[in-house]
Design brief:
2 domains; alpha+beta; elongated; single chain; 246 residues
Amino acid sequence: MASLRELQQSFAAALRDPSAACPVVPAANLSIYRGNVRHAFRSALEQSFPVIRRRVGDDYFGQLAHHYRGQFPSRSGDLHFVGANFADFLADHLRGGDYAWLADLARIEWSREEALISPELPTVGAEVLAGFSPEQLADLVFTLQPSLHLRSSSYPVFSIWLANQAADAPPVDQSCGHECGLIRIRAESLEVIRLEPRLFSYLSALAGGAALGEAMDVAGLDETALLSSLGFVFSEELVIAVSLTT
């Protein structure tokens, strides 16, 4: 007699593969379960990637969901994580084609999903800098909000995402080229913000653990641009802690 684990494994295999044998339920009933599983999987993807669905249409999105599920079936009881590999799947599936930019758009949308389950922590203001001497400022390290995600693309995917918050949005000119930006949660609301490239480089360096002086050099900021960037970081409530490197 098969063990409970073996029965569960055969049932799971039969849900994905109609040719797999399953002694748990009558074969005719399995089609109902399969339909429910397919619907739940696609519905989870639609909720995580609404702009991609809007841009490609329901039929093509359904085809993408079918192929994606074949390669990346759900491994968790929480459907929130169904789309974790969708961007990488699109990058491979659409490589070299006219819709290769969808992979970077998917990364923005998945970053939103990750931000949703990240904590929003208390922040510190610019006044915290007064606790350090001028000689120490270049060696300060900022700890940023855990929900912060920074994305860069050779395509105008931030413009595409922002434009498609309205129904029937017109296509965005792909010749606009490279864009970068941030995704984060603030006051329990998701924000997607397009950034100027030097500010993006500065934030990326800070997020990677670089001290202020190093981040300034990486982004090529002069003193005026540094003050503006610091103002952005604090006004956007991105900093949760400041420490001095050793």
